[in-house]
Each structure stands twice: as structure tokens, then as C-alpha cells.
Amino acid sequence: MNTTPKITALDFETANYFRGSICAAGVAVIEDGRIGATKRWLIKPGNKCSAFIPEFIKIHSITPDTVKNAPSFVEIFPELRQYLEGAVVIAHNSSFDMTALRDVLTLYSVEFPEFQYGCTLKLSKKVWKNMAGYSLDKVCSALNHSFNHHDALEDAVACAQIFLGAVKELGDVRKALHIMDMNKIFPGQPHAMGRIYAANGFGERVDIRSIKPGVEKFDETNPLFGKKVVFTGTLSMPRQEAMQEAVDLGARLGNSVTRDTDFLVTGERDARFMAKGIIESAKTKKAGEYAAGGSAIKVINEAQFMALIGR
After folding, report:
1. In a domain, 236, yes or no
2. In this predicted model, which residue has the larger pLDDT, 197 or 174?
3. Which of 20, 23, 115, 190 could tie 104 with a disulfide, CB 3.0–4.6 Å?
4. Is residue 207 located within the same domain as residue 88?
5. Contact 95, 106 (CB under 8 A)
6. Residues 229, 245: contact at Cβ < 8 Å?
7. How far apart are CA 186 and CA 141, in angstroms?
8. What distance in Å separates the CA atoms of residue 166 and residue 43, rounded to the nearest whole number?
9. pLDDT tens string 244-295
10. How far apart are CA 264 and CA 29, in angstroms?
11. How does strand 7-14 pair with strand 22-31?
């Protein structure tokens, strides 16, 4: 393990739907096959994104009063940067954390650090193929690691524990890094992380027939099990990835809203439509019409979808 790169597990909590509204951060460094240095920050979101939404407070229990005297992200970033620069950064559902980092650094016009990153959610699915679910809490439960979910530091430590568990299972830290399909961030590229979802961004089209279950056993207690799910708008993760999460919980996918649709998951509206004053998507409008007619369709936002898939 001494010859392996520095590995830093990272977790962010946010105040609202804007990923740059980071209100807490946590890191845990893996050193010599064990968890070494750890750090937690409470962060006061910037004025442009400082609103705390009740449903987010319910998730992490952080309120405006909690962070009223806390530093801003730009104030803590020089210290956080030392944990990230030149490291392999891991996160559970890394698309969320990388998007949050991209958005907050762009908000403050701060140059990106250089590091590689990988996702322990994807790693878990490749190492343990028969788990009922792959959310952070479910994987840790299977590994007998208890923690306070949605505490940024404890989530970072939990992520590190998952990585160490995978290394133990595989017998090689570099094999674990390899199967995570590493990505890299470069300095001086304020939009570099956009590549995480650029291929499936505005106007994305995904062939739902190509989305097959990646697990052998479904969690039949999950509200998505056996339900028809349709997506609209842009999510913080690629739509194909969101669809895969739903299918792995036993959901059926649909391209359009019909009378038998159970869930419509809504993301941010395409900026091109907003510029024309079109805020409501055709799918959302159709769902409203069916609901008014007595349909049981549920329209949920991304945060609610993330809660359903255990993120």
C-alpha cells in the first residue's frame, strides 16, 4: 500500500437544489491501508445560493443558524484543496460531489485543482453483485459499518470504508482503482467537470431498451419497485445513470407520460426553453392533466428521487 497514490474520500452536503450551495464538507484520507487524517467543515453558502430548503434540512439537519458564523467555501477551500490536489478522490455517487465542486468553484471563479476521481457506488456494483441496494447506507450495512448518514465527515469515512472493503475483496488496491473507471480533473478548466454529464445533458436521448438491470436481486420494499418511471429535464447525474438506478430497483421505464405512469422525475428545465418563457415541460403538463383526472401519478423532483434510490 505504501506505493499507492494518496486516496481521499470526499462528501458534500448542500442547502438546496443548486449543487454549489455546499453547507458541509468532509474528507477521510486512506493511508497504508487504513483511514488516517479526517476533516469536517461547516460552510456558509454564498449569498446567491444561501436559501435552505426544508426537505434538505430534514436530510442533514443543517440550518441557517448552524452555519451563520461559518466560513464561506472560498475561505475553507485552500485547506480542502490540499486533500484533493494530486490525489485520487473517491465519493459515493461521485457525479453529485463533482458537480457540487464544479458549481461552487465556478461560482467563486476559483481555478480547479488537479486530481483523479472515482465512484465507490460503481465500484460496489462491480465487486458485490448480489446486494439488495447500493446506496451508501446499504453497502455499509452489508459491510457492518455503522455511521450517521448525511454527516459529511461520517459519509466520507463510510465511503473510505467501502473502498477498503473492496480492496480486501479484490486483494489489490490498484485493481479497485482500475475498475472504478477513473476520470481526471485539470486546473485552469472551469468547465472541465461538465464532461461528467455533457453527453447526456440538454435534450439528451437515451434508448430505454438498452437499460437492463445490473443486479440479480431487487429491493421489493422500495417505492420504485414494479413502478413505471419517466424522466424530464436535466439532472445533476446523466439521465442514463438515473435510469439505471431506477431499473436496478425494479422500476419500468417510459419515454412519455401515459395513464399508467407512476412517477415523473423532474430535473432543471433546459435553459433554451426557459429563455422562451417555457417553464413547465410537456411531460409535467401532461402529468398534471392526468392527476386532475384522478390518476395516481406522482411528480417528484431530483432530491426526492435521490432519496428513493438511497443517495
Report:
1. yes
2. 174
3. 20
4. no
5. no
6. no
7. 35
8. 31
9. 889 988 999 988 899 899 999 987 654 344 344 444 678 888 888 888 888 8
10. 39
11. antiparallel
Rounded Cα gap, residues 15 and 24, in angstroms? 9
Residue 306 CA to its chain's centroid (Å): 8
- The confidence score (pLDDT) of residue 99 equals 84
DSSP H/E element including 101 = helix 94-107
| Residue ending a domain, choose from 168, 196, 224 | 196
Give φ, ψ of 302 to 5 degrees.
-65, -40
Is the model's pLDDT at 22 over the cut of 90? yes
Interatomic CA distance for residues 25 and 72, integer angstroms: 11
Element containing residue 183 per DSSP (H, E): strand 183-185
Is 182 in the same domain as 227? no
Based on the domain organization, do 79 and 190 belong to the same domain?
yes
Of residues 47, 52, 28, 49, the one with CA closest to residue 39: 28
Q: At what angle do helices 120-127 and 152-170 cross, to 10 degrees?
A: 30
